[in-house]
Request: fold
Amino acid sequence: MTVLTERTAPPPDGINPARARRVVRALYAGPTLTAADLSAPLLALPDGASGEFSLPGATALAGIPATVARWSGLGIAGVKVFAYGHDRDSRATAALAPGNRMVTAISAAKATAPDTAVTTEVCGCSWTDHGECVLRTDDGGIDLDATYRLMAAMAVQHADTGADVVSPTAMLDGSVRAVRQALDEAGHRDVGVNPNLAIHTSLYGPFKTLMNTDPQSGHRRGLQLEPGRADQDAITQARRWVTEGADSLTLQPVMTAVDVLLRLRDDQRVPIVAYSTSGEWRAFSALGPAGMLEYMTMLKRAGADQILTFAAEATATLLETRRA
Ligand SMILES: [Zn+2]
Reply:
């Protein structure tokens, strides 16, 4: 009888860390997460806003330069700007007002860190008094044409202010085409369009509460992907978005949708942003920065080109500490 010993056992298919030298393990370690893989949500809040809780990246306008400078110094590649809307009405009038909180935030971020990619949320929900992403008809339906016009005008305004990428957030078919056309006509052919693939989830909760964008009734759920079908429907929607002119995509959430991320990666060659939402940040905070780093490494391995996360600063800080 032949006994398998260390000398005669077949070699492992991969690297065997018990036997590999440190330099060899490093040689074959594969891609690792870097700060350049990370983007941070920048939540522009009213002066003096203090809710019962907050989220990383939530700041009054005066705090934006310091926040963005810190992130840029850590090597974080991008920010996505969300604004807490003011003067809300049924037509989202303030969304297009000169000098509103969104455009002021974009200007401050770009002035502070010109090399940081600035993406903006293009959506009605921060600016409508009913909190819906879309504009309504008198009988409560979706006013499609008015919503397209709003999103197109917001996108152009953001691009005029310095945004590098605009992100139509409501999953309204036709909106990406409207935004792309408006940008082209305004001379912003080099501004990207990154629409959402948003799956219905409780994991948006902390963000919606902080930003006061949680309509009690209306169309939002109908505009999101149903969790049970999200794997198929995300691919269908992604193909539509790309046909309409999207040049990158955001998938949210990801903690409960890694299977969707994998399928999407197999189907799409455009860059995919994995948006680790506010509820994920809250849940994963219990694991600490090291656990969060492992989570993000997994998202990169699964095919995310960029990870938008409330833990960007904590993770980039940990990466810097480990490198030192
Ligand atoms: Zn919205």
Summary: Strands lie at 38-45, 58-60, 78-83, 117-122, 165-168, 192-193, 196-198, 249-252, 272-276, 306-309. The domain at 36-323 is CATH 3.20.20.70 (TIM Barrel).
